[in-house]
User: Fold this.
Amino acid sequence: MESEGRREALLELLHRIKLRPQEKEHFIDALKSDEKFTLVIGQCEHGFAYQQRFALICESDMLGDRVIQRRKKEKRSINSDTVIRNLAELKPGQPVVHIDHGIGRYVGLQTLEAGGMMTEYVTLEYQNDAKLYVPVASLNLIGRYSGGADESAPLNKLGSESWAKHVEKRQKKCVMSQLNCSMCTRNAN
Assistant:
């Protein structure tokens, strides 16, 4: 898997079938480990077996081509300074920023059926009690709100273009916007 959010989702699935892989930072650490199963974040489309020493099993090997298709889409993520690395960092009512939909409030986790599979979603609430369900595997699209006090965070309206206009306006002000300046994303929220 390619992200920490996807790792969490996969760990949840594996725990349901009583598999508890050890998490490793790097592939070389997994190779050196005495553990039977290890889990590493990285990019790989298909797994392989090396002699009879180890097998690399990729997310796409377990979950199908749907994962590969998602990877081919444009890579987008929140600025690394505001990224949420772990669901434990979120508290109900806390304002967060979704890269495409703007400022909302974290409600909690909810398990829903999608495509015949039960999947866990981060639930965000926007203006007019509108809800957005973000798969835990897409946690990289959500970041911390850093625009002031949590209580006074202005919620965006789902479906409106106000957030996209806000981001575009911030990027135009940034001298370095042609270089994908990280400040544009950081200041957007």
Summary: Strands lie at 22-24, 38-40, 48-50, 54-56, 95-98, 102-114, 117-125, 131-135, 142-144.
